[in-house]
Amino acid sequence: MEKEDLFSEGYAKAQDEQDPLRKFREYFVIPSKADLSRTKIGGRADENNKEESTYLCGNSLGLQPTLTKKYFEEYLSTWAQKGVFGHFKDVSDTHLAPWLNADADVQGDMAKIVGAKTEEVAVMNTLTANLHFLMCSFYKPTKDRHKILIEGRAFPSDHFAVESQLRFHGFDPKDSMIFLEPPSDTDSTLSTEYILSVIDKHASELALVLLPGIQYYTGQFFDMATITSHTRSKGIIAGWDLAHAAGNVPLQLHDWNVDFAAWCTYKYLNAGPGSIGGAFVHERHGQVKNVGSDERPSFEYRPRLQGWWGSQKSSRFAMANNYEPIPGAAGFQVSNTSVADSTAVRASLDVFKQTSMSDIRVKSLKITAYLEQLLDLLLKDQEATLGKKLFHIITPRNPDERGAQLSVMLEHGLLDHIMEILEHNGVVVDERRPDVVRVAPAPLYNSYQDVRNFIQVFKGACEDAVKKTKA
Ligand SMILES: Cc1ncc(COP(=O)(O)O)c(C=O)c1O
Q1: Residue 212 φ/ψ region, left for φ over 0, alpha for ψ in the -120 to 50 degree band, beta for the rest
Q2: Which of 234, 230, 226 is nearest to 204 (CA)?
Q3: Dihedral sign, Cα of residue 297, residue 298, residue 300, residue 306
Q4: In the chain, what are the domains?
Q5: How far is residue 123's CA from residue 121's CA, in Å, rounded to a whole number?
Q6: Percent of the chain having pLDDT more than 70?
């Protein structure tokens, strides 16, 4: 394919026309350029300026499904009209479950997103909170085995969570945190071979390996199946942070034998800022056995932090202080569900339900490859016209080792100016200072034309930024 063809509007349009997921864009509210630059949310936007923005930032905050507003209105009306009855009375003209069942209502569809059995998933708390709750149950250090392996460049919240868990158990993070470090400053990816070799090196002292499914900065998709299997074969617990993986790539948490995982719903899962999180507990850890009798039950189960919402619904309101955990991940819940949040999750999952993670992945591979091709052409262009490349892609080039996101490392000093121009042109991507721009075409709502628009503006922004630094 000639470069002009790939760059042409016609090519991008033709890809959009052939896109089997194209109808999904209409299920989302795409901010207009005018909306992005307005300083008010009230009042009318400029009716003559409804041109859509180019939003490639679903790895940070996913866009709003149109269903969300409808479901929120139903939730608010139920609350207004039913008060406390909203907890248990069915309402026939809403798709939403009575609030007592709001958690169970989203469990099965969420489980499909991460490749789990329904009982293995709970929608609860938030991501870091879930990591803590799960580590409380799964991190069982002994004098000899107390170390936790994470990345040297882990997302700060994960780093802090691990540090504090170690301290709570009386260990010094300086001795008990093992870090995976990228091979060099220019290559930030971590090979599976290297990860396994570090696990091997520290195997006898490790209690837990906690890694991200997809690395937030580089966009690297780790070989979760191999790493989990290797970790577990050494008697170590395998936990995963799936913030950037859930809703982005197909996962098989059950089949991969993952011990536990946690994720958020505000990125590729489009449930809104700070929305409720997800948790996975493999079925082998969620069993509840009655070792007493029917008259005098006594339960054996994995120790965890307890609260009333993890206890069986049938006895929850008996107020008898007899804790009987719900089998599976739901038994790790502590508080009653935020119904506002689970309403947003319901809206999101009702969109996902109309397709599958494998179909989403097919488009994702294609649209991200298109972004990569255009970036590569731009690099050739820069070499020819400027005599140098102004950026390089730090995300793995192998499509199996990445999700939707490509991370672009800019020549130092260009970021501010480039981000300014992108924003001015209604192009939304995410920056990681000092030099990285993360660009993520979300297959449900992004089009090939979005990718092309980004490239057009980014090309001009790079040229402009260089002129400015020379001036
Ligand atoms: C990889 C990763 N871990 C943890 C977090 C923190 O999530 P939360 O604030 O929902 O606890 C984020 C947030 O973006 C993240 O990307």
Answers
A1: beta
A2: 234
A3: positive
A4: 3-52+357-470 (3.90.1150.10), 99-351 (3.40.640.10)
A5: 7
A6: 98
Tell me, in angstroms, the distance from the centre of ligand 1 to residue 264's CA: 7
Could you read off the pLDDT of 396-405 as tens digits, one per residue?
Answer: 999 999 999 9
Is there a contact between 56 and 427 (Cβ–Cβ < 8 Å)? yes
Those residues with Cβ within 8 angstroms of residue 421's Cβ, 6 or more apart along the chain or in another chain: 457, 460, 461, 464, 465
Q: What local confidence, expressed as pLDDT, does residue 471 receive?
A: 67
| The one-letter amino acid at 283 | E
With the most atoms of ligand 1 within 8 angstroms of its CB, the residue from 59, 128, 345 to mutate is: 128
* Mutate which of 216, 217, 275, 438 for ligand 1 pocket (most atoms within 8 A of beta carbon): 216
**What are the C-alpha distances in Å from 186 to residues 189, 204, 218, 391?**
9, 32, 12, 12
CB 122 within 8 A of CB 107: yes
d(CA 212, CA 194): 16
243 CA to centre of ligand 1 in angstroms: 6
For residue 183, what pLDDT is reported? 77
Reported as a single tens digit per residue, the pLDDT across 442-465 is: 999 999 999 999 999 999 999 999
